[in-house]
Specification:
This protein is of the alpha+beta class. The chain folds into 5 domains: about 1-30 and about 265-435, no CATH class; about 55-265, no CATH class; about 440-535, Golgi alpha-mannosidase II (Immunoglobulin-like); about 540-640, no CATH class; about 660-785, Sandwich (Jelly Rolls). It has 20 helices and 37 strands. The longest helix has 24 residues, at about 630-655. It starts with about 40 loop residues before the first strand and ends with a strand.
């Protein structure tokens, strides 16, 4: 049986790991008992035993069965001139990014078949491939797709027409838009990846043929572009298309595909990373991670050390300087300045797709050289973010996982009408919880994740069982239930960095005399059927400061992030004060309760005592994850200021009717942003939008009865400019900006709206129009408030 692309982790030389502060990687040690070139066990060799992970997989399995392949195929058939067999889904599948979900769905089907053996998963995947082959043949160009483009009249039509335009050098992009289509090459990559997974899963030759036709089509598109045009096109999100072409080369050994893979290279982002420069701030995060996965795959196939340098440096910077405590990254989808996490604890943190891709990159790096620190990160993100991103009651997925105190998670609905990018990555993530848990190489067996499972280890003819209640309890036991080839070999159990020097390892209940190397407890001995090796890790509480600000902390227990439980979700936003921690010995005031991993506090939380619970399980409840900490003396000094600031923020939130985050992909689509000669901008860690002379931008805001105030945010110290602000075609203000306007800081300007403009309306259109030879903005966000009494 062929292995999936995730299991084809070739090694092209070992690259030394950079030393640094935890959780960074150690320098290369003597090979010892750890394998030089580990590979993950195939999913077909792993069956999950009861746990939260198994539940998540079962819920996802039912979700995949609930989806209708013919509905996902609607545009593929319709745009090819074939009669669709199912109605088009809503959400993103009714927008110009349509088709991205089908690629994820194919991968999810393959992964679920591998992990469960359900024949229906394989039948559906084969059916979809056959439908795609029919649509591809009908078109006759090699192209097959569902992506659309928005015509002048606003109607969405077949998006293939943009590619001949691009070949002629007619390239128009506003960041996520390419010639009227939403990130079309991103969508193409998802289809590529799904087809390659079906081909690898059970050798479906038709899947490879469809992929080859698609690859040849885009090879011609890219060949028509010179280097400058290629870079212009790559300014629009293209997913991990470089990885797909590299993988196609690995399958066929046709050199033409590696040529394309290497041309799919964004100079602006990747050159600094090769030079080990962190210039990630203000880049859209998930646009970048797949590019590095692609470079990692290219390195594995070509041995280019510069590609490995970029991939490893990116991983180190993101995990150590740009990530939140749950392992996710980015605020409102964008990287911020390094070590500025404390300034970005918002309701728009941690897009799931980012972590889905970071875990892929982590597995690549581990295959080059095993180091437990890599899986310290993997475990943190997998447990605290990925597991939080699915609601096991409904099967829905989050887009963001908010870390702002009191924010509730928003899951996709059960009517299958969202289909965000994170719905696609979610249906993959929860189909493969056993994927990276167990690795092998050079005769050794490695446990990287303590997930209950039954395992078949083919080289030894062995059956193993991992039993554990981890992370709620600290002991995990690996038993060799059968062993066709008894003998001497190493079993390696990961020792997380937080447990270094404190792990207890036994074999058959007696001290094992384990060796410790690069984050592993390694037991090498002559094994026989029935032997059991157990590891016990301390599950003490600890505080972890945010990178760059040790006054803001989170509470962890082992690998698990704990959260203060702020009660069930409610229709009204949270309007209480953010909890703070006050005292000298904070953790001494945490007392365990009868419930596993649940603690009660006494006297250290302000404004009052709270229960601390596993964050990832707060599916339908509000949480506080980060806490400002004070000594008693500091609290007396700071309390009034702290609470006043909290009250101001809560007042703003309570009075807001609608908020527009300009320059950000999803909010602009949600508010139907329309524009001409207008561009997204990024400055000082904030996203915005401007319009140049002759242009404009406008969007819809919801309204409410009564007096309303429109507030816009600007940067102080702009060059002289004037622009008008209109509401439903009526000018409400002319704004003048100059270098004397509060230079060096963002500031807000409020515009009171005549009640006649909003009376009886559910929404209004807000338009920014520059004066001649001027610029409107940049505007870094717009809020519509109710006026204060």
């Amino acid at each position: 049986m062929r292995r999936t692309r995730r299991e084809i982790l070739a090694s092209a030389g070992s690259v030394l790991l950079a030393a640094g502060a935890a959780p960074t990687l150690a320098r290369a040690a003597d090979a010892g008992a750890l394998p030089r070139k580990p590979e993950p066990l195939p999913l077909t060799a792993i069956r999950l035993r009861p746990s939260d992970y198994a539940t998540a997989m079962q819920v996802n399995h039912r979700y995949l069965l609930r989806l209708d392949p013919d509905r996902l195929l609607h545009n593929f058939r319709g745009y090819a001139g074939l009669e669709p067999k199912g109605a088009l889904y809503g959400g993103w599948e009714s927008d110009t990014i349509a088709g991205h979900t089908l690629g994820h769905y194919l991968s999810g089907l393959v992964l679920t078949w591998q992990q469960t053996g359900d024949a229906e998963m394989r039948r559906r995947a084969d059916y979809i491939v056959a439908e795609l082959a029919e649509a591809q043949a009908k078109r006759g160009t090699g192209y097959v797709g569902a992506l659309g483009r928005k015509a002048a009249d606003g109607k969405i039509v077949d998006g293939e027409a943009i590619f001949p335009e691009i070949m002629r050098g007619e390239i128009k992009s506003g960041g996520f838009d390419l010639n009227g289509s939403w990130s079309p090459l991103y969508t193409v990559h998802k289809l590529f990846a799904g087809l390659l997974d079906v081909h690898a899963g059970w050798g479906n030759a038709q899947a490879l043929q469809v992929t080859l036709g698609l690859a040849a089509y885009f090879e011609k598109v890219f060949a028509a572009l010179d280097d400058a045009q290629m870079q212009q096109m790559l300014g629009c999100e293209y997913g991990g298309l470089n990885e797909s072409y590299a993988e196609l080369y690995a399958r066929t050994r046709d050199a033409r595909w590696m040529v394309v893979a290497k041309r799919l290279y964004d100079n602006r982002v990747l050159d600094p990373l090769k030079a080990r420069e962190d210039k990630l701030a203000n880049f859209h995060a998930n646009t970048q991670v797949p590019k590095l996965i692609g470079l990692a795959r290219i390195h594995e196939l070509t041995g280019d050390p510069a590609d490995a340098t970029a991939a490893r440096f990116f991983w180190e910077r993101v995990t150590q300087h740009h990530s939140f405590v749950i392992g996710g990254n980015a605020d409102r989808e964008y990287f911020t300045a390094p070590d500025s996490i404390a300034q970005h604890i918002t309701d728009q943190t941690c897009e799931h797709c980012n972590t889905y891709n970071m875990l892929k990159l982590t597995s690549h790096l581990f295959a080059w050289q095993p180091d437990g620190a890599l899986f310290d990160y993997y475990e943190r993100a997998h447990l605290n973010h990925v597991m939080a991103a699915q609601n096991p009651k409904t099967g829905g997925f989050t887009y963001m996982t908010p870390l702002m105190s009191g924010a509730e998670r928003g899951y996709s609905t059960t009517d299958d009408d969202a289909f965000w990018c994170c719905v696609g990555s979610g249906m993959e993530s929860h189909a493969k919880h056993g994927e990276a848990a167990f690795w092998e190489g050079d005769g050794a067996f490695l446990v990287n994740l303590y997930i209950p499972a039954e395992i078949s280890w083919k080289p030894r003819g062995a059956k193993l069982v991992l039993e554990t209640a981890y992370p709620f309890e600290g002991t995990a036991t690996l038993t060799l239930t059968s062993l066709a080839k008894p003998g001497r070999f190493p079993l390696a159990l990961r020792v997380p960095g937080w447990a270094a020097g404190k792990a207890i390892v036994t074999v058959n209940g007696k001290p094992a005399g384990a060796a410790f190397d690069r984050g592993y407890a390694i037991v090498t001995r002559s094994w026989k059927a029935g032997d059991a090796v157990a590891i016990t890790l301390p599950m003490a509480l600890r505080l972890e400061a945010t990178p760059g600000d040790d006054s803001v902390v989170a509470v962890l227990r082992g690998p698990m992030v704990l959260a203060a439980d702020m009660g069930p979700n409610a229709p009204e936003p949270w309007n209480g004060a953010d909890p703070a921690l006050v005292g000298q010995d904070l953790l001494a005031a945490f007392a365990p309760t009868a419930a596993p991993a649940v603690y009660a506090t006494k006297g250290v939380v302000r404004p009052g005592d709270m229960r601390f619970v596993p964050f990832y399980r707060q599916y339908e409840r509000r949480s506080a994850v980060y806490f400002k900490r004070f000594t008693e003396g500091q609290w007396k000094t700071e309390e009034a200021t702290f609470l006043a600031d909290q009250a101001r923020l809560k007042d703003v939130a309570a009075r807001s009717v609608d908020v527009m985050h300009l320059g950000e992909m999803q909010p602009e689509r949600d508010h139907d942003l329309q524009s001409a000669i207008s561009y997204p901008v990024s400055y000082r860690g904030r996203q915005g939008r401007d319009a140049r002379s002759g242009g404009w931008f406008e969007f819809t805001l919801k309204t409410r009865e009564g007096p309303l105030v429109l507030q816009a945010t600007y940067w102080g110290g702009e060059r002289e400019r004037d622009f008008d602000i209109l509401v439903d075609g009526v000018r409400v203000a002319t704004q003048h900006l100059s270098e004397n306007d509060r230079p060096g800081k963002f500031f807000d300007v409020e515009y009171a709206l005549p009640e006649a403009l909003t009376k009886g309306k559910k929404s209004v259109r807000v338009r920014f129009v520059p004066h001649d030879r001027n610029t409107a903005g940049p505007v870094f966000g717009v809020v519509l408030f109710t006026a204060k009494p």
